[in-house]
Specification:
The protein is mainly alpha-helical. The chain is built from 8 helices and no strands. The longest helix is centred in the first third of the chain and has 22 residues. It is globular and about 50 Å long.
Amino acid sequence: GITFNFGIILGWTSIVGEISIFPVILYLGAIFWTLGYDTIYGYQDIKDDEIIGLKSTSIKFKSNPYFFLKSCYSIFSISLFMIGFLMDLNKLYFIFLLLIFVQIYYLQIFKLNIQNTDNCLKIFKSNNSLGLMVFVALLFGKI
């Protein structure tokens, strides 16, 4: 998550020409988003990973995955809310945030069944839609 999301910092500084707190907050939140969806992805082949001795968040939190996922996604959600507040984004942004929160907490966490590999893959792939929703929220938040 640290490496994968560093583009947030790079993109911001290349456009604005300086660093500020806004991309840092979004970057930190995105790290936890990545931890969450990567953990869900890991539940698909957790048995094989355990056999070969791989270390992963899926294995570490397999006894209580929902606590870990809620924690990661809550940090991500808080960062999105903070960005909207600190950047003084409009009401459209916050309306999109409601949809994003439904996607995260209902469609990803509530519907997650770590015993079902197809379910895990489907929920993992739904993060494409989530990323698009975050992009659209940020875009419309500045209109």
